[in-house]
Design brief:
Elements (H helix, E strand, L loop, with lengths): L1 H13 L3 H19 L4 H27 L7 H13 L2 H13 L4 H21 L5 H17 L17 E6 L6 H13 L3 E4 L5 H10 L4 E5 L5 H15 L6 E5 L1 H5 L3 H4 L4 E2 L6 H13 L1
Parallel strand pairs: 1-2, 1-3, 3-4, 4-5
């Protein structure tokens, strides 16, 4: 207990927290007055406990609170954002995002939580006849606008591309039109300094032409469609055969693989990323094994 007390006192006296230092100085003056006045021993013992334990704990709690991560997104945040997506002009939705970032919400939380949830809720509302197809279209355009505002392409100085960085081609599976998630995946790869070609909506023949012309280290395919389970394995075979890089690796992701991870091996993919934020790290890890 004595060691703990000394440790707390030393941290308190060495801290940059002016509030804590001021509190300790005031208390020390007060304690001196009590001792001079001849207060009972019980009072002096109480003062010592406050000085040695309570004040250091208060200072420690104050420091922890100052350095604590910002609060995460709330249900009210999601509801407000969804309403701005349905209301129309992207300016209001951008303003909501700007305010959340000023509040301390990270861009990663904006991408993976706010924008992704907004897209899913738009889809749910449409399937339940809660909004029109036009509402969904406008909302998705707004989401793309927001993603562009905070993207690598919008601010190349902040996220410069390394010419020697690994190269990835990102695409959707044949017939899949869920392009917003793929666009977000591309953003995370750019932030990790990859050279990224993102081509949602291209069919297998067009993708094969790309991998014949350019030397990609990794090809990423995303799908949310259950019907893709039967076709994507064939698509992967075509890409491997046509690839200029004979050691190209294939990454898969999207709702289908999140729900059925057993499909990863069935379609002959090399790796699987559960969400956009971890995909670049997984990709680099696999490529590092090839070069080692």
């Amino acid at each position: 207990m004595t060691d703990l007390k000394l440790d707390r006192q030393s941290r308190l006296t060495s801290t940059d927290d002016t509030t804590a230092k001021s509190l300790l100085e005031i208390f020390n003056h007060y304690e001196t007055d009590i001792e001079v006045s001849g207060a009972p021993s019980r009072t002096r013992a109480l003062l010592q406990t406050i000085r040695d334990n309570i004040i250091p704990q208060l200072a420690e709690a104050h420091a922890n609170a100052a350095g604590a991560p910002a609060s995460r997104l709330t249900a009210a945040d999601h509801d407000m954002f969804l309403q701005t997506l349905l209301d129309g002009p992207s300016g209001s939705a951008l303003e909501v995002v700007d305010n959340l970032i000023c509040r301390g919400i990270s861009e990663e939380d904006i991408f993976l939580d706010l924008l992704s949830t907004g897209a899913m809720r738009l889809g749910t509302l449409w399937s339940e006849d809660g909004c029109s197809f036009s509402d969904v279209t406008i909302g998705l355009c707004t989401l793309h606008d927001i993603l562009r505002q905070y993207s690598h392409d919008h601010d190349g100085i902040r996220h410069p591309t390394d010419p020697a960085a690994p190269r990835i081609l990102l695409a959707t599976a044949d017939g899949d039109q869920h392009i917003f998630g793929l666009t977000m995946v591309a953003e995370f790869f750019r932030r990790d300094r990859w050279q990224v070609v993102c081509e949602p909506g291209l069919d297998t023949a067009a993708l094969c032409r790309l991998v014949r012309m350019r030397d990609f280290d990794l090809v990423g395919l995303s799908t949310a469609l259950d019907s893709s389970a039967e076709k994507i394995g064939e698509q992967i075979q075509h890409l491997r055969r046509q690839s200029r890089n004979r050691n190209v690796k294939i990454m898969v992701g999207g709702r289908l693989f999140n729900q059925r991870p057993d499909l990863v091996t069935q379609v002959d993919a090399d790796l699987f990323a559960e969400d956009a934020s971890i995909a670049p790290t997984i990709g680099r890890r696999v490529l590092a094994k090839i070069s080692s």
